[in-house]
Design goal:
alpha/beta
């Protein structure tokens, strides 16, 4: 989770929501890193999880990440939960839960849905307070910032 938190903080430099993710291989090696890059890239799919999964797939040489763990600072959304299932990731470790948009147990539970071809073990609340604090500080600053006139 420490590596994912480093990625989350790096997202602040581009004005992106500070979410970070890493894909860890079976030997404990980091295969992929990601941070939210929607603002930086102008890409609505550039969530931390998707960025990390893409990098890991390139490192492994295939799309199946069957022996890997995804570690992310915030509970994945619907899109990212779907990507985790599609990549056949067996384990998800998350920091803060997302009661508004989380799709791994909060609002929905896509990664453990019995109707899908693959289910994911979820380990939640790892360094939860630290992960949540980074997000709270970001949103508090954004709410306090003056908006530009239309």
């Amino acid at each position: 989770m420490a590596e994912a938190l480093v990625e989350a903080r790096a997202a602040l430099l581009t004005g992106d929501v500070p979410v970070g993710a890493v894909v860890v291989g079976p030997g404990g090696e980091v295969l992929g890193r990601g941070r939210n890059r929607r603002e930086a890239d102008g890409d609505p799919t550039a969530h931390a999880e998707v960025v990390a999964l893409r990098e890991a797939a390139r490192a492994v040489g295939e799309w199946r990440l069957e022996r890997c763990t995804l570690v992310v600072t915030l509970e994945p959304c619907l899109m990212c939960a779907g990507a985790v299932v599609a990549a056949r990731v067996p384990r998800l470790v998350l920091g803060a839960w997302d009661p508004k948009a989380g799709a791994c147990g909060s609002q929905w539970d896509v990664v453990r849905d019995r109707r899908l071809h693959h289910r994911v073990e979820v380990v939640g609340g790892v360094r939860e307070e630290e992960s949540a604090a980074v997000l709270r500080a970001f949103f508090a600053e954004h709410r306090a910032a003056p908006t530009s006139p239309p």
